[in-house]
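fyi for ur records
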Amino acid sequence: MTAAPARIALCLSASFSVLTLSSPAKAQEAEAERESEIVVTGEGLRQAPSISAYAITELEREEIVASASGRIEDVLENIAGFQQFRRSDSRSSNPSAQGVTLRALGGNATSRALVLLDGVPIADPFFGYIPLSSISPDTLSRVRVTRGGGSGPFGSGALAGTIELQSADAATLGPVSASLLVNDREETEASAALASNLGGGFGVITGRWDRGQGFFTTPEGQRVPATARAAFDSWQVGVRAVAPLSDTVELQARGSVFNDARALRFEGADSTSEGQDASLRIVSRGEWEIDALGYVQARNFSNVVISSTRFVRVLDQRNTPSTGLGGKFEVRPPIDEAHTIRIGVDYRRADGELQEEAYSAFTGALRERRRAGGTNSNLGIFLEDDWQIGPLLLTGGLRADYTSISDGFFRAENASGAIVNETIATDRSDWALSWRAGAVFYATRRLDLRAAAYTGLRLPTLNELYRPFVVFPVVTQANAALENERLEGFELGLSWQPVNPVVLTLTAFDNRVENAIANVTLAPNLRQRQNLPAIDAQGIEGALAIRLGEVSLDASFAYTDALVAGEGTSLALDGNRPPQTPNFAATATLAWKPAEGWRIAGTLRHVGAQFEDDQETDRLPPATTFDVFAEAPLFGDLNLIVRGENLLDEEIVTRNSRGAIDLGAPRTVWVGLRLGY
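which gave:
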């Protein structure tokens, strides 16, 4: 990883020379001709009217770049109801545990929410986790979160909802922007962006490098000589270009490379995730609106497991290469002014193979070589119509998905090459029909009433189907017979603006995930991934936004009664709460902008108690944290940044396995400089 800064510096330096070839005279000439140039956006098609029928939360750039940790998960946690599998952030967790969900529909480490970056799904093809460390908030212009099943044009992964991340354009980032911060543990965070208009379009190059010794996730009373800090070292470089093909058509291209190395609990327990992503998109905003997208992902993951009793290597997940590819084609024909019709098809294919070796904790000798993998694919066809009738908007959509699970296997060989365990999974495929419908009634200029119902679909990941794992002494078996998860739900909501500075939104919902995949306890030291009959989640979400001159308040809460329907499992789970799922979460940010370039904000966040396991034996206590962010101009475009994470130094328990505890980030103070942005 020591070569990472050099790589980033080389890429940025070369790119800067390309982007700044124009002389000042040419820049002035371009400015004079700007009004006659074709304007490109770098975004997809305009939002369909149906967006107002569902529970939507949007974060603008000012909020995105003002998080205390500078991590995208911290930004998203300002939306109550957003949930990672564990409370750890992307510096101190195992990457494969970074699943995200909404509405307390968690229970395992795979994402039940679909995460899109500029329209492209970014989940890992093998594990289904989100590579959070590869997303720099500084490069984003907007975040939109849609709660509830997305059976329409979003794709089959939008079981609990959709999180859409939109990259900032050249005008937003400016020609040169950068930041450099250091914290009280001497860890650093550095980022930079170079942007320029290129003909009628623009180009952007971004880079980020985070590194540090980390903190002890193990409580002081449980540490041993082999205990290690959660050290991290990650970097990311991205390139994005947008060019007009005509006055209504633009071409968008993006590519990114990232590498993330971390340590977890013990010396030698190192993990690495890496990826190379590329996408090409054509957007036409003519009379016939068209969005055509294609993408490819190349990912890998490695992980070394250290025995928690003898503190030696017992497992080397040395290689997990995987590939994701897919695309979407959507067309909106000009049928009628009152109707917005969306017709399209999308496709996603994921394949990968686990390669790992197990070693004896006593002799260090090789015990087993294991291989596991397969191919999953999903082809979807969708049709959606939004119909505006005066103050009433009606929306409805149908989606048909052809899902395929093939070439699945698990094989374990002993040190001499003899097979000791083998599973050859049966290929299977099926069609599934999903739908969604909603209505919005604009009752008054200040009051909107809405209702929606929907279904959704998620395929099990290759990891869930074929990869067993051990967290000593508990063995979790894979299950090649897992079925697709299905969601059914409905919600009622309102948006009320009693006076200009105040906006209040409320949503009541009832969601049910049938065939929910969970790690089910079979015996004290044995679990298996199984399809539960269902997870039922009913609750209420609310948000309040107040703007009073220089002062603003943004608050949200989510109360969810989530229960497992567990009849038919080896041990009864009926009525238990899904693992890692709080009943209540709330967040509030009070901000003050006394002058241009200034921002002072404090964020209070509370997460209720959770259980580690399906048997509700290991409890994670509630946690309340307080963060601050302050920005003040120094001179020109250079600003001073001060950030404080968990200033009350709350003990955040992120894992509790029979009393063996992991902790989240302690009090951390950052100081640094920001140019531009």
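The chain has six helices and 39 strands. thats all i got for now
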